Amino acid sequence: MMMARRTMRRMVGATAWPWARATRSLSLSAINDNRIIMSPPLVTLDLPEIWTPPDSHDCNPLPQRNCSNLQTATVIDGKSIAEEIRSGIDKEVRRMKESIRKVPGLAVILVGERRDSQTYVRNKIKACEEVGIKSIVTEFADGCTEDEVLNALSNYNQDSSINGILVQLPLPQHLDEGKILDAVSLEKDVDGFHPLNIGNLAMRGREPLFIPCTPKGCIELLIRSGVEIMGKNAVVIGRSNIVGLPTSLLLQRHHATVSIVHALTKNPEQITSEADIVIAAAGVANLVRGSWLKPGAVVLDVGTCPVDDPSCEYGYRLMGDVCYEEAMRLASVITPVPGGVGPMTVAMLLSNTLDSAKRAYGFT
């Protein structure tokens, strides 16, 4: 029995580690080819599920946390990285226009007057203009009917000049969010929220047409920052369909060991403090304090919590889920708010829209 275990461990080492080196090589080599996004196709990340039995079931006590060597985290400039990606998209859009006289088209549906949603839509439309993507916005009042939204979606589904459709979330409570998202054509679901896209993201051996933009942006930030994902302990704080759930699925596809902390988790601080990678997406300002973090952890703050501030242009400012000042003294790498994950979300939306147009027009 012991001989069999040793043999299995040797087999795992012989197959897994060469694959890991090949994956790192693939990610780095992407800089030298025509791809805009460095993340490899998900199917190429799939590995056989071979477990290595432990030599002993005895557990060692957790070591004491050593916070004596406090540091200053490296700040990931999401804005700069997003600009690099958008530059590549701009070149591809111009090449498409010159070659086939077509450009990608994005339609956005905005319901209600939430200030944060209005800001997000403004940023997305501005980004489309900067890279040459055509954009259309349909706005509805808070009290609009479900049929009004569904009719607009139906028109966009049938419009061949529209390659991507985005419904800005959250929607007012009287609207059935699931029904509305299901009505978006799968081939135009550039937000990646269609159940078939989420299902294919979750299943090994499957490739979704689109990966949700914020999770995709988080992985792209990690890869471009040289953060190893495979084999690391990752905690996702929040389990929304928009960010938390797809982020946890995507991290698993990249072979992280993933825990999800949510509002009913009994010991969120303890769980998070053991993570190598923390992705905070709860939408609660300053929820994650320094005591939640292991020294040297990688921290991506997805939180965008609007806080009233008359001195700002739109009367409010955005704060993250992570207490930035405390986290800076413990984390090895961190994203700011704003200027971290947010610009990457927009860049991934543009990337998904471009991919959709290429697929629809057979453009390579």
TrEMBL record:
The organism's taxonomy opens as:
Eukaryota, Viridiplantae, Streptophyta, Embryophyta, Tracheophyta
Q: What is this protein called?
A: Bifunctional protein FolD 1
